[in-house]
Design a protein that fits this description.
The chain has 169 residues and is α/β, with parallel strands linked by helices. 51% of the residues lie in helices and 21% in strands.
């Protein structure tokens, strides 16, 4: 299975593709899409859409995992994150790809064993799990890979369980 992980953001949006199965993941590609804060919102969203489409074309993932937006004090940051995530979801849905939303604590627990792990711990574990020489930088890149790993290891099993008991995700 191949998964595209998206750590949404308007200024920096992490993208990471991993391939494998539960317990085994390999890096395909990782990167960060940047948009200038001085650009109009519409232009920034179009730039993200183009980047998502290019990654989807290049990697042909089986699924897309996006970080679920959570509440925080900075409303402007939450809105930008939600808008960037929505563009990724639309791009995937347009192709009929399954999209999963994972919370930050779910992702941290999947890759580190603790839902309260800090950014450094996540980066170190992503590097270890993917057999990289060091944590991907910036943190948005590591987070995107962590999302993809989380979905690769937990997403399909959770989806099958939900289908078996009649629960919709």
């Amino acid at each position: 299975m191949r998964v595209l992980g998206v750590d949404p953001g308007l200024t920096r949006c992490g993208l990471g593709v991993v391939e494998g199965r539960p317990g085994r993941a390999e890096l395909v590609e990782v990167g960060v899409v940047r948009t200038p804060a001085t650009d109009d919102l519409g232009l920034r969203l179009v730039a993200l859409e183009r980047a998502f489409e290019a990654w989807l074309d290049r990697h042909e993932p089986d699924a897309v995992a996006v970080e679920r937006v959570f509440a925080q004090a900075n409303v402007r940051t939450v809105m930008g994150t939600a808008q960037a995530g929505a563009v990724a979801i639309v791009c995937a849905a347009r192709r009929g790809l399954p999209v999963a939303l994972h919370t930050p604590s779910e992702v941290k627990a999947a890759v580190t064993g603790s839902g309260r792990a800090d950014k450094d711990q996540v980066g170190l574990m992503v590097a270890r799990l993917l057999r990289l020489p060091g944590p991907p930088t910036p943190a948005d890149a590591a987070d995107a890979l962590a999302l993809a790993i989380c979905h690769l290891w937990r997403g399909p099993a959770q989806a099958r369980l939900a289908a078996a008991v009649g629960v919709r995700r």
